[in-house]
Amino acid sequence: MQLHPRYFGRNLRDNLVSKLMKDVEGTCSGRHGFVVAVTGIENIGKGLIRDGTGFVTFPVKYQCVVFRPFKGEILEAVVTMVNKMGFFAEAGPVQIFVSNHLIPDDMEFQSGDMPNYTTSDGSVKIQKDSEVRLKIIGTRVDATEIFCIGTIKDDFLGVINDPTTV
Amino acid sequence: MSGEEEENAAELKIGDEFLKAKCLMNCEVSLILEHKYEQLQQSSDDAVNQVSQVFEKSLQYVKRFSRYKNPDAVRQVREILARYQLAEFELCVLGNLCPETVEEAIAMVPSIKTRGRAQDDEAIEKMLNDLSLIKKFE
């Protein structure tokens, strides 16, 4: 962590910690996924003054909660958009797309005010805000987010039926 | 990022770092993030507006998909699952999805059957029964 001299003084440690949180929370990498929250500082090492500038670099060891989706993992998500290509869902900060090829054949797209996928007997419907269980079959990481492809075509996947509402 | 091509959660191929790391279930993350959010609220009004979108979305997600709300229940779930020689990752997927049958559990976490620890069906069934008892009495 690099710190400008204006932050030196009594509150150096606090400034370092809050800068760490601001810089690191919310970022994502291919290796660790999204950093959701810093939960603790383990150690702050001695600062090293950079040649030519007044900045000081501190090595900081910290603990944090990360969210990292894996290929082959099964998890639950909320549907955010439905169209004839398939539907988009979100699991926390991660976006997942399920193509219509990976939606069971007995579900058909219905356009309208609330586009959805419905089974022929109307018993199961997937629309915005539905909760679905899906399997991740691919992940792609770019600078600011992780994007996944999923399927609901396997056993035990699809809309989650909450027993309390059935 | 070695082994990225072979990554496969179904076979528990998730990389050394994550195999050794502590895995958290949604309900545990919910307790952690809520606690942090309360701390931020107490420290200054401004801090609450500065939480990243990632934090907000994650908090909403884990709150919505936590099967167990009560901290004691959450602790019991972890204790029960810990008795069964599961990897952290497997433990959390089971705690998050709460499969009702042995068949479902194996479909959700295929690695419990394939990694040579030979979890027999009876053991898996007992584990699922114990989990559903906690939910009933939460």
TrEMBL record, chain A:
Lineage top rank: taxon: Eukaryota
Entry protein name: Uncharacterized protein
Automatic annotation (TrEMBL), chain B:
Annotated GO MF terms: nucleotide binding
Species this chain originates from: Pisum sativum
Family annotation (InterPro entries): HRDC-like_sf, RNA_pol_Rpb4/RPC9_core, Rpb4-like, Rpb4/RPC9, Rpb4/RPC9_sf
Keyword Translocase: no
Gene3D superfamilies: 1.20.1250.40
SMART domains named among the record's database cross-references: RPOL4c
GO biological process, one term: DNA-templated transcription initiation
A cellular-component GO term for this protein: DNA-directed RNA polymerase complex
Sorted UniProt keywords: DNA-directed RNA polymerase, Nucleus, Transcription
Compartments where located: Nucleus
Assigned protein family: Belongs to the eukaryotic RPB4 RNA polymerase subunit family.
Name used for this protein in its record: DNA-directed RNA polymerase II subunit 4, variant 2
Glycosyltransferase in keyword set: no
Main location: nucleus
